[in-house]
Amino acid sequence: MRQVKLGLWGPMVSEVCFGSLAISPLQGRVTEAEGASVLRYALEQGVNWIDTAEIYDNYAQIAAAIKGYPDVRIISKAYSVTALEMRQSIEKARTALNRETLDFFLLHEQESALTLKGHTEAWEELLRAKEKGIVRWIGISTHAVAGVRAGALQPGLDVIHPILNYQGLGIIDGNLPDMLEAISFAAELGIGIYAMKIFGGGHLTHDPKKAVDFVRCIPGVQAMALGMSSREEVDYNLLLLSGKDIPTHLRDKVRHRERKLYIADWCQGCGNCLEACPQGALRLNERVAVVDNEACVLCGYCGRVCPHFCLKIV
Fold first, then answer.
1. Average pLDDT for residues 82-98, to the nearest whole number?
2. For the chain, what is the radius of gyration of the CA atoms?
3. Distance between CA 277 and CA 281 in Å, rounded?
4. Is residue 281 within 8 Å of 296, Cβ to Cβ?
């Protein structure tokens, strides 16, 4: 698999980062053991880094999958605001993943300079952890153009994980040209960039080659995180990236698998999911949550905050 350097001072990694949200309890598509098996299969094929987050609640799953792969790199993220919260998030990851040193740790879903300012204590704790050698590289994930621009100017930042696809789906401010301009700005500063949601949460899977080629052609974007929950998806994506022919049976099995956000009929209309959705894809209609499928990118964050377990990616 093609190896890339993540920014000017980042490590060499595979072009594909395994996006573990797809095998996490947040999406509930596979069991913990099944997900670990898929992840291990991806590692056997040459994928050598994994994207996760505290919110995904799958550290134990990853720890089980990476046994025998001491060199695999792991990126995690947290919503921590205070220094104490960040210390706790870092220690939770170190303990659960059985790692003395974490490769990457990011502030999760930063939207702007104002958001980053509100997380100043947490960021300063990340800087201290980096100085102590507890974390090697630090950064942010973001669905916002302003988040990329603010992150690029954040002292000590090494990597940005932005939403990026050829239709600009999921960008919560601005548009695709704005996002490309912000990414170019960050790349000129030497920051490592790996894209998320290149298939637009499943909306762009009708032309996966176009989606992959678009991201690959953007200067400054070195890699991409791909969510995969089956061996077939691993095989399909790696063949796609290698430029090799994809067998018809494999193409049909993977591309015809449509997913959606399911909202159970026992929804109580509490509205928690609306606040948790970064895309504004949910609303209440007659005190029941409904989803705008065009806006939903199938992240599953809404399901985490539902007290009645009404929401699930299926």
1. 98
2. 18
3. 7
4. yes
Nearest in space to 206 (alpha carbons), one of 159, 163, 256: 256
Distance CA 109, CA 158 (A): 16
Which pLDDT score is estimated for 214? Answer: 97
Q: Confidence class of residue 253 from pLDDT cuts 50, 70 and 90?
A: confident
**Nearest 5 degrees, angle CA 85-CA 88-CA 93?**
125
pLDDT per position as a tens digit, 158-189: 999 999 999 998 898 999 999 999 999 999 99
The arithmetic mean of pLDDT across residues 219-234, rounded, is: 95
* Local structure of residue 266 (DSSP, 8 states): T
Domains of the chain, first to last: 3-255 (3.20.20.100), 261-313 (3.30.70.20)
**Long-range Cβ contacts of 55-60 (<8 Å, 24+ apart):** 55/26, 55/79, 55/108, 55/301, 55/304, 56/20, 56/21, 56/24, 56/25, 56/26, 57/24, 57/25, 57/26, 58/20, 58/23, 58/24, 58/25, 58/32, 59/92, 59/93, 59/96, 59/97, 60/32, 60/96
